[in-house]
Amino acid sequence: MQLHRLEVEGFGPFRERQTVDFDAFADDGIFLIAGRTGAGKSSILDAVCFGLYGGVPRYEGGEKRLRSDHCEPDDVTEVVVEFSTPAGRFRVRRSPEYERPKKRGGGMTVQPAAVQLDTSVGGEWIGLAAKEREAAFELDEILQLSREQFLQVILLAQNRFSEFLLAGSKERQSLLRRLFGTERFEDVQARFDERRKAAEQSLGARLATVSARLDEGERLVGSAGLGHDGEVQGEDAGAADSEPVAVTTEERLDGLRRAKARADYRAERRAAERIEAEKQSDAADAALAIAREEQRAQLERDRARAALARLEADEPHIAAARGELQNARAAELLRGPISAATTATSALDAAIEAETRARAAWEAHGIVADDLTEWAAERTAQTGLWQRAAELERSASALDAELAATSDAVAAATARIDAAEADRVALPAELEQLTLARDAARQLADRAGDLAAARDAAAARHAAAVETVRLRAAHDDAERQLADASAALAAAQTALAQLTQRRLDGFAGELATSLHEGEACPVCGSHEHPAPAVHADPVSAEDVDEAEAARDVLAQRERDAAERTSSLRADLAAAISRADGREVDEAVAELDTATAAHAQSTDAADQLVTLDQQREALLARIRRLDSDRDRDSTALAAAREAHSLVAQRVADTRETIAEAKGHYESVAERLTATRVEVQAALALVEAAAERARKAEAATAAKAELDAALEASEFDGIAAVELSLLTAAAQAALENRVTQHAVQREKERAILLDLELRTLPEETIDLGPAEQSSLAARQRWSVAVDEAGRAAGVSEQLAAVIEAATSEHARIADDAADYEVLRGLADAIAGRGANARKMTLETFVLAAELEEIVDAANRRLSDMSTGRYQLRHSDALAARGAASGLGIVVFDAFTGQTRPAQSLSGGETFLSSLALALGLAEVVTARAGGIRLDTLFIDEGFGSLDGDTLDVAMRTLDELRQGGRTVGVISHVEAMQEQIPAQLRVRATSSGPSVIEAR
Q1: Number of C-beta neighbours around residue 812 at 10 A
Q2: Closest alpha carbon to 714 in 311, 443, 431, 334
Q3: Quick one: what percent of the chain has pLDDT higher than 70?
Q4: Nearest to 819 by CA among 204, 210, 215, 200
């Protein structure tokens, strides 16, 4: 079955005719019915159900409010559903019962329910039925589904989604029977029941059954050895040996009852033996536990002894470490004096070495002087004579620099002339580039007017778009006011009509009040007035006039509101036209683009001025190069003259310096050599004095060290240095000594507690205790088995006796045939030996249900990430109810099955969805079955988390294969983002809802 088109008018929240073209979603395959809560999303499905079946499940058991509350009295209520099945294409038009104004006179009348069923033949609609009963019969044959089945398979409405999953076997069988056409198996069952009943009537007795029960009991007595039980007391045993062979049914029953008494006595004995064996096993286990604890304590004692022995053996090493630590701490006190003496000796050696170097440096000059201090003073005085020459020598570099500068000036003037010549060659090309750039800027600047016009047009569209938003809001408000005015006017018109009718109805009573006995009636002329009318509900002409005035005021208000709405609608259309269809965001973007383009044109105009200035400057530069050529030539001649004068001064200075420097390379070198000699003499004097001071300090440090060594226990510095340790080494030694002491005390404490327990020295053997415990446990196990068997025999024997006594009946010649026929009939009907209570039809449907469950699991496994699987259950139902079509849920997390009712809301939704889809898949695959090409889902997605919702969406997306169309009702925002094809149900400001396709 596939839906093609739906039309609703005056139904539910829809007042005006709304049309839904389901074929428009055929390419998408899945579409969303979205809208605010209460807008009327589910009413679309209510309309489909009403059109096909004449009822809506939401209104069962209550007032059938199918007609829209927004309807005016003259409005029509109608639903049109167009669909197709393998039998053809059909259209059903249906209206519910509702009240409407009378066509003649005032008041209301009931518009009866109506239905029209048509079929498409050659592109034309041909009527099939126009009466409720005929249409219901035809639709039942066409749809092949009852309304309840339709709601469980195709239109999964609110509060009914999970019914198929949670239904009992009986309800599930009713649905599957119609889907798979298994009524014939019920007929087979009925025929076998009739044959069984006929055979049962011919049966005279049931002694064969009793005999079988007695045989079973006697076999049980024989196998259990209860015929002459050796455990029975003496007189009982003798009586058992002397029992005669029973030949009658009563005697056999008495024999079984005596065997039952012996079985009870044996069961009591075995139970007592089991209790005693259990006590012995517990005692053996307790003894084994004590032995194991003592063995553990014995092992711990031996370990503590060994550990303490190791610690005692390590004591000499610990003592040595303790002594080493003490020596290191004593040596640490001498570290400072030793370091000071060593430092003073090193300083003395350094001073002696410095004096030796100073003397060697002085002697290297080859100068002999008795008093170095006096010699240095005399030589210092001689250096003053060479200072002037040295100054001239220092200024020689400046003269050289000046000479170089004049040379550079000559070169610069020459280069300037050359550069000017090069510029005169390159500037024409640069002038051409500036000219091209100026022309391009001029072209862009010339478009400023056009771009300004485009910007103004974009600004106008933007203003119109903003005005459109304002006018649309004002128009919507005006429409709401118009709707309110129309509603008030309708109420006033209704009140006026009622007053007018009451006025007309009261004319007779008003006329009767003017009648007097003996006076002629103004209507009939009679002088007798036997039954004058009673004026019970008087309405005056003033009342009618007041109602008409109120009606006229409201009519004027409605006209004003309509005019304002029309004016706003025209203004809105004009604004939309001025905006040229642009939204505000789009208009803002266009305005920004046009403004930027105009700004670029304005910038180009400013750049054009700059380029013109640069071009004029370049032309001026070319002219300036021509005028500067003579000036540069004059500057070159002046530079050459200055260079000649500086060269003469350099020659005079060099002559003076040569006389002052003597045999040295320069005067400065001579001065430097003399100063070095003076410094060497003074350095030797200072080094000798420093060596004397360091010698005195070294002597004092040596004396302090000797005093410290004398006061210590060390023989010398070598012994002290040998005992010195780093701080880390001292800490390691201290930690080792401390840990040894702590561990030894700990092991002594452990060993003391264990030694007080006086455990044996030899290792405790657990073998005897373990063997004793094992033997006791084996005896207890044997006793448990014996007690269980004895109790089982007693219970079985009691059951056999009870069954044989209750089923005592007559023997019939045809008992064997009856048993065969009864067994077959009971198996087919789910009775007797049929432990699962499954009828033949149920068995066939169970096979179909297994395929449905397998198809559902292919989707449920993905939707539940492998956690859940549906499983067909043929478990026996409680209190003998029908079985065989149960569904349970296997939870992979626990490895157990559980009822479907134990699932959470979201889990129930996913399981129900998978089962519904599996049902549709199996039914579609059956040859000659019902094809389900349209599916609606109206609940459940809001109970899913984000990840599970994505899985459910992928499952729904797969349903599009094969041309199936799926409609989903949901307010979940994530689904609105994922499903582009949508039907939006929107409540208007005046109340009624409308359907919009996207």
Answers
A1: 18
A2: 334
A3: 87
A4: 200
| Sign, Cα dihedral of 606, 607, 610, 615 | negative
DSSP string, 876-908: PPGGG---S-EEEEEETTTTEEEEGGGS-HHHH
Do residues 482 and 558 make contact, with C-beta atoms less than 8 angstroms apart? yes
C-alpha distances (whole Å) from 27 to each of 706, 964, 970 are 110, 10, 21
d(CA 465, CA 640): 81
* DSSP count for the chain of H helices, then E strands: 26, 17
Which secondary-structure segment (H or E) carries 90? strand 88-95
For CA atoms 871, 873, 877, 878, the dihedral sign is negative
Residue 525, token pair as written in the block: 């002329």
Q: Can you tell me the distance from the alpha carbon of 981 to that of 21, in angstroms, rounded to the nearest whole number?
A: 12
DSSP assigned state of 106: S
**CA angle, corner 677, sides to 674 and 678, nearest 5?**
90
Vertex 690 angle, CA 684 and 693, to 5°? 150
Roughly what angle, to the nearest 10 degrees, separates helices 183-202 and 815-829? 150
Write the DSSP assignment of 382-419 as a string of letters: HGGGGHHHHHHHHHHHHHHHHHHHHHHHHHHHHHHHHH
Do 249 and 207 contact (CB within 8 A), yes or no?
A: yes
**pLDDT, tens only, 507-534:** 666 666 667 776 767 666 666 667 776 6
Which residues are bridge partners to 710 per DSSP? none
Which residues, other chains included, contact 587 with Cβ-Cβ below 8 Å and sequence gap of 6+? 458, 461, 462, 464, 465, 466, 579
Q: What is the pTM of this model?
A: 0.39
